[in-house]
Amino acid sequence: MSMNQDIQEVLFTPEEIAAANQRLGQQIAHDYQGKNPLLVCVLKGAILFLTDLIRQIPESVEIDFMDVSSYHGGTTSSGDVKIIKDLDVSVAGRDVIFVEDIIDTGNTLKALGDLFASRKAKSVKIVSLVDKPAHRNQSVKADYVGLSCPDKFIVGYGMDYQDRYRNLPYIGVLKPEVYL
Ligand SMILES: O=P(O)(O)OC[C@H]1O[C@H](OP(=O)(O)OP(=O)(O)O)[C@H](O)[C@@H]1O
Ligand code: HPA
Ligand SMILES: [Mg+2]
């Protein structure tokens, strides 16, 4: 059965996502000329965004990955942000950009920000493809935002429900009967 049948509404098409990526890539390229920033992809959700975003940055960058989880497949944050895999490289003296698919409660980026405060990065900024401000309970804000989303649980383009739907090329909302 096609995943498309589980979708009630498409919020952002592949074209809208591509346009957002292009704009974000241009902004980052402009702001980080000659700085060789370290883009830290927050797995798993941000994997599609990272790979598309970096191709829109015609400047030298490096990438690394952290695996962080707090939703455990569901639709609400457990508040317990688990670091499953840390970076391979040191961030001391580096210009770091966290790459996120979505900022929702802000719990994930608050925990990463606290962790990085002691690691002596030269600068730390955040790029998030989607901003969902409705449930924010931490005062984190992305420096670069692609798309703003209403108070709905979304899937696709990296984002999951029970680890599925990440491979949808668009971002949408599931039919209510899927949440069982
Ligand atoms: O602002 P928050 O409320 O913390 O939500 C945002 C985070 O939640 C999701 O990750 P999740 O824990 O679902 O792990 P996943 O990326 O592996 O799906 C998403 O990819 C962000 O990292
Ligand atoms: O709306 C969402 N969808 C998928 N994953 C998420 N993680 C935080 N918010 C969301
Ligand atoms: Mg998830």
What does this protein structure show overall?
By secondary structure, the protein is α/β, with parallel strands linked by helices. The protein has a single domain (14-149), classed as Rossmann fold (3-Layer(aba) Sandwich). It is 21% helix and 29% strand. The protein has helices at residues 14-31, 47-54, 107-117, and strands spanning 7-12, 38-43, 62-69, 82-85, 95-103, 123-131, 144-148, 154-155, 171-174. The radius of gyration is 16 Å and the shape is globular. The mean pLDDT is 96. The structure holds 1-O-pyrophosphono-5-O-phosphono-alpha-D-ribofuranose, hypoxanthine and magnesium ion. Residues 45, 71, 160 line the site of magnesium ion (MG). Its cofactor is Mg(2+). One of its GO terms (biological process) is guanine salvage. Keywords: Cytoplasm, Glycosyltransferase, Magnesium, Metal-binding, Nucleotide-binding, Purine salvage, Transferase.
Unreliable segments of 5+ consecutive residues: none
Strand content: 25-35%
The residue fraction in helices comes out at 10-25%
Attached small molecules: 1-O-pyrophosphono-5-O-phosphono-alpha-D-ribofuranose, hypoxanthine, magnesium ion
* Helix/sheet category: alpha/beta
Into how many domains do the coordinates divide?
A: 1
Order of helices and strands: EHEHEEEHEEEE
The 3D shape can be described as globular
Task: Give the termini distance in whole angstroms.
Answer: 17 Å
What's the gyration radius in Å? 16 Å
CATH-defined fold name:
Rossmann fold
Number of strands: 9
Q: Please tell me the CATH architecture by its name.
A: 3-Layer(aba) Sandwich
Largest sheet geometry? 6 strands, mixed
Q: Determine the number of helices (DSSP H or I, runs of at least 4 residues).
A: 3
CATH top level assignment: Alpha Beta
Mean pLDDT: 96
Q: How would you write the strand order of the largest sheet?
A: 4-3-2-5-6-7
GO molecular function: guanine phosphoribosyltransferase activity; hypoxanthine phosphoribosyltransferase activity; magnesium ion binding; nucleotide binding
Keywords: Cytoplasm, Glycosyltransferase, Magnesium, Metal-binding, Nucleotide-binding, Purine salvage, Transferase
Catalytic activity: IMP + diphosphate = hypoxanthine + 5-phospho-alpha-D-ribose 1-diphosphate; GMP + diphosphate = guanine + 5-phospho-alpha-D-ribose 1-diphosphate
EC number: 2.4.2.8
